[in-house]
Amino acid sequence: MKALRVHEPGEPGTVLRAEEVERPEPGPGRLLVRVSAAALNFPDALLCRGHYQERPPLPFTPGVEVCGEVVAVGEGVPDIPGIAVGDRVIGSPVLPHGGFAEYALMTAAEVLPAPGTLSDAQASTLFIGYQTGWFALHRRAELRAGETVLVHAAAGGVGGAAVQLAKAAGARVIGVVGGAAKTDHARALGADVVVDRHTQDFVPVVKEVTGGRGADVVFDPVGGDAFTRSTKCVAFEGRVVVVGFAGGTIPAPALNHVLLKNYSLLGLHWGLYVRRAPALVRECHEQLTDLAARGQITPVVSETLALGEVPGALQRLADGTTIGRLVVAG
Question: Is residue 202 situated within a structural domain?
Fold first, then answer.
């Protein structure tokens, strides 16, 4: 089968190589999936660089989010409705056999049925980004209708999902993007106000839009200065959800400031829910499936790629120049 593999750590555009490899066989508790679509994610770039928390043995195939058809089932796979040979599923492949290939391995207990209302490309983006957004906004921040949400990287995969989910929950959304080309995309996703951080300071914009109150919830997958400046415009009893550090800098919060302004700092490592609370992940998926069926969330695929285009596209994603979701689809 065809697969992209990494033989040594480095930049995605350099180290991802197309190869012919043996098709993997599903071991106990695993599924073999024919990949219909694989979404590109920032963790894929970190995996290529050797900077991700998980470091699979070399050589490996990245691709942490897929939609595919089950073609073989390993021993000991439990009887799960919607998870059998011929079924269409989504989830994260088991590395080193990731999704940038014709076939991938997945853990049976962790895959989810692909929503029938979404295309393969759309469904491939529903797992990581939308689950992260849902857990951040609903499980951690307990978002309420009528509140104001400040979303950083609002034109990206995770940030864009948060924009749609916040709007579906009845919130007002202020999106922050990096560059004029990304503003229209964030608006199309539903953001009420969009700030280009290259030309505007989002802090006074948030204060003006909220009449001086500030944002009730801050969704921050960026870190660094985005986090630090967000604390200047978070509301009394607001909540800042730390989702990641795509900006490359891990901030050191001033805890006296947390005390003086009475806001909460909340962390979200969504992967922990997959391992520690799988029932909540399935509950989230059911809600996302319902929202998609009602048209309240619609995954937007900005670019559909061939497998050979992935190295360059993943490099652009790593460099922060992409807009929306990029998906490999046959």
Answer: yes
